[in-house]
Amino acid sequence: MHPENAKASAGELPPLELLRTFEAAARRLSFTLAAGELHLTQSAVSRQIQQLEASLGVLLFERRHRALSLTEAGGVMQRAVTDSLERLRDATARVRANSAPRQVAITTTPGFASLWLIPKLARFTGTHPQVDVRVSATLDLLDLESSRIDIAVRFAPISRGVGPALFEESVVPLCAPKLAEALHAPSDLSGLTLLTVDYADPGETATTDWEPWLRVMGLADLRMKSTLRFTHYADAVAAAVAGQGVVIGRMPLLRELVRDGRLVAPLGEGAMSRRAYFVEMSQRAAGNRDAQDFAQWLRDEAEAAQRT
Question: Which residues neighbour 264 within 8 Å (Cβ) at sequence distance 6 or greater?
């Protein structure tokens, strides 16, 4: 069949598979090499090129003995097809990237998560509505790479912290307003219930979380009427809000509870615990723009809290 007898109507595009085959053959100037690239047979490539030429009504290649070259029409088509396929590849890559799930994974202590992070988290998700935030609240020190975590907020002694510090912790006894009436001096604590965390480490005492404050106040031998121990610090705080005893307040984690008047500090200012919260980034976070934004948001929130 002569090409002119089978050409398509003006403006009708040839099938995409024929254009992909033509692009490979024109680039390689070989039906055999194009066939290997496209995982087709040489005869299939030759047949598709003939179909394309018939559709266009022109010859695209000059076939010589063991040689192939583009005709003038073939050169025009090569430039147009190459440009169009590149645009399609770029657009496809962008669409796929935009449709991929955007996620930030963070690990931190249960206390930091429930008392500081989660109450503020809506401010980040409000400005990043397409980002899923996954919070792993645990006392375990997870390996960031194997756990596929972007950010860790670690609570550690200042001398051992990794990454920039969000803030240093200060500690002060806190209780519900109704208990504050019985607290006028540190010695009055002996008549109240101690709310503390039950540490898994047998070497830790019941007052481990109180020790920085007790040391500064010179009350290392203080004994309280009774003790309530909790697995998680947030539960001890909830008991304090309910008026069940006195908890050591880790500031600024409990700043909003104090600001709202749900907890008070009847014994005055706190003591620095020489511990802080540090932001550690994993290697995978370097390629996650949302994770970098989240880390910056953490720092901005910490700075704003300190200003107020």
Answer: 174, 175, 176, 177, 180, 258
Instruction: State which residues of the chain have pLDDT below 50.
Output: 1-5, 202-205
Sequence-distant (6+) residues with CB within 8 A of 27 are 34, 78, 82
Would you call the peptide bond into 252 cis, given omega within 30 degrees of 0 as the criterion? yes
CA 295, CA 153: separation in Å to the nearest integer?
Answer: 10
Q: For 159-180, how does the pLDDT look when each residue is reduced to its tens digit (9 = 90+)? A: 998 999 999 988 999 999 999 9
Helix (H) or strand (E) holding 287: none
Burial classification of residue 81, based on how many CB atoms lie within 10 Å of its CB (0-12 exposed, 13-18 middle, 19 or more buried) = buried
pLDDT at 273: 84
Residue 259: strand, helix, or coil? helix
Q: Which residue has tokens 């440009």?
A: 83
The DSSP 8-state label assigned to residue 167 in this structure reads E
pLDDT at 132: 93
Whether residue 270 contacts residue 171, with contact meaning beta carbons closer than 8 Å, is answered with yes
| Closest to 108 in 3D by CA, of 266, 253, 306, 240 | 253
Contact 219, 171 (CB under 8 A): no
Task: Tell whether pTM > 0.90.
Answer: no
The answer to whether the CB of 68 falls within 8 A of the CB of 29 is yes
| Pairwise CA distance, residues 303 & 292, whole Å | 17
Contact 174, 254 (CB under 8 A): yes
CB 142 within 8 A of CB 107: yes
- In Å, how far are 86, 171, 198, 204, 214 from 201, measured between CA atoms? 61, 21, 9, 6, 20
How many residues make up the chain in this entry? 308
Contact 110/138 with Cβ under 8 angstroms? yes
